[in-house]
Structures are given as C-alpha cells and as structure tokens.
From TrEMBL:
SUPFAM superfamilies listed in its UniProt record: PTS-regulatory domain, PRD, SacY-like RNA-binding domain
Keywords on record: Repeat
Name of protein: PRD domain-containing protein
This protein's record includes keyword Repeat: yes
Pfam families: CAT_RBD, PRD
Boundaries of every PRD domain copy: 54-169, 170-280
Record organism: Enterocloster hominis
UniProt-listed InterPro entries: BglG_antiterminators, CAT_RNA-bd_dom, CAT_RNA-bd_dom_sf, PRD, PRD_sf
C-alpha cells in the first residue's frame, strides 16, 4: 500500500483493493512520510472508507486541520448508530468530526451553548441521545473536556439529520414540533396518556420522525394499499377518527395531504396504542 497523501502525523490517505481513496489512522502513521512511500500496515488502527468520493475529499480536508482523534470519536458514533439499526449516511463522519472539534474549542474558550431542544431530543430520539452521551464521554476521556448534556443533544441532532438524509439542521426543530403536535392531538382526542416506555409508543415515535420529515420534504408515499386500507378503516373506526384528526390538522397547517399509505400506517400505530391502553390495568 502506498501513501497517496499525508493528512497529519497520525492520518494518511491510501487506496483500497477497489482503488478507492481511504483514510487510515494510527499513531505516527504519517510521521515524516511523503506521497508515494510505502505504508506500514502494522501501524493502521482504523480505516475510513466513504462511498462518495466528494465526501471522502471533504473529510480529508477536515482531518488535515483538526486532530484525527475527533474523527475516531465520530467513527465510534457512526458504528454505534448502525449497531442500533439507525440508517445514518457517511456525511455523519464529516459533520460530527467538524462539530466535535468546534465544540471542544468553544469549551476551552469558556463558551458553552445551550440546546433549547435538549428535552425533546432526550424524549423523542432516545437512541440518538444515548449515543450523543457516549460521544461526550469519549471526548471527556480523551481530552479532559466535559461537553455536557447540551452537546450530547447537539450530537443527537446530527445523527437524526443523517438518518433523514437532510443537510438542514433547522428542519429537526420543525419535525420535532410536528411530532409534538400529533402526539397532543392523539392524547386529547382519545383522552389517553402515553406509556413512553412501551414498544408501541417507541414504534409510533419512530414512525412520526420519518413521516414528519416527508411532510416538510413534500415526499408522500405512493398509494399502494387502498384495498387493505378500506378494510382496516371499516374494522377500526375509533382509531381512524384519530387519523382524520391528524390528517385535517396537517392539511390545514402545512398544506400537505396524507396519502392512503400514510393514513394506513398512522391507523396501524394508533390501533396498537389504543389496544395497549386497554390492556393496561
């Protein structure tokens, strides 16, 4: 393996077996090295291979100017998210490496940012927030800087943005506001209290996360299950009354018409919530 370029003392770029550029890190792997020299493979600790060549180049530019340890922490976040079944994209390596570096620099300068969405992130994005806390723990262990719970929530926001394949962080606030509104409608319409530790509730919230993103992207499902929908509506009139309430609110507030498929999925989730409510003592 030959070195394509040296990023810093502990990070270089080489080619994998498919001739794609990859970033490899390890203690001293780039020390006094130059382009074209052979890479000491025994020094490699971690390899980062991004699917997009453009994303790979962007990440290389960041690693050239910041410590590769922040890329290592971002890599742990990506691995943890994927192990939890979260479908994050490779851009997360870029945004998190840059964000963690900026957050550490701010804290070292005595500047701490408050995250006004911290409570909502903890409530609606439990897995992402837990991974954010893990990342904060790694930063503390490696740098001695405690970023705190506000930064755990910011990291969680980056994870959610990556899941939604959306580059605009502000959309997370809009999505969360819509999720809150839908939950309020369901709570008042059916006069129930959610059991937030229940599987049904967690599935419902996960569905709302991606459903709400489609509302703002105006990317509706195609209507493919009309026959099943008609049968389930006839069998579950009570749950469907909640679907109508939500659909009317979204139509009025966001000028978005729910497709049959979207109404069907909402109906299924609401039926689970109501069935679970009846089974509890």
């Amino acid at each position: 393996m030959k070195i394509i370029r040296v990023l810093n003392t502990n990070a270089v770029v080489t080619l994998d077996k498919d001739r794609r550029e990859v970033i490899v890190t390890g203690p001293g792997i780039g020390f006094q090295k130059k382009k074209g020299e052979q890479l000491a493979e025994e020094l490699i600790d971690k390899t980062y291979c991004l699917r997009s060549g453009e994303d790979s180049r962007r990440l290389q530019q960041i690693v050239q100017s910041v410590s590769e340890q922040y890329l290592g922490i971002a890599g742990r976040v990506v691995d943890a998210a994927r192990n939890e079944g979260l479908k994050v994209n490779d851009v997360l390596y870029i945004t998190l490496t840059d964000h963690i570096n900026s957050a550490v620099e701010r804290l070292r300068s005595g500047i701490a940012l408050k995250n006004m969405m911290k409570m909502d992130m903890r409530r609606f994005y439990e897995k992402e927030y837990a991974i954010g806390q893990m990342a904060v723990g790694r930063v503390l262990e490696e740098t001695g800087i405690d970023l705190g719970d506000d930064e755990a929530a910011f990291i969680a926001m980056h994870i959610v943005t990556s899941e939604l394949d959306n580059s605009k962080m502000m959309d997370i606030q809009k999505i969360t506001e819509l999720m809150n509104a839908i939950l309020q409608i369901v709570r008042f319409h059916f006069k129930i209290e959610f059991h937030e530790d229940s599987v049904s509730y967690q599935r419902f919230v996960t569905h709302l996360k991606f459903f709400s993103a489609r509302v703002f992207d105006h990317g509706a499902y195609q209507d493919s299950m009309k026959e099943i929908y008609q049968v389930l509506v006839a069998q579950n009139e009570e749950a469907y009354s909640g679907v109508r309430k939500v659909a009317d609110f979204i139509k009025k507030q966001y000028s978005y018409t729910l497709s049959v498929d979207e109404q069907l999925y909402l109906l299924i989730h609401l039926k689970r919530i109501l069935d679970e409510e009846r089974e509890l003592p």
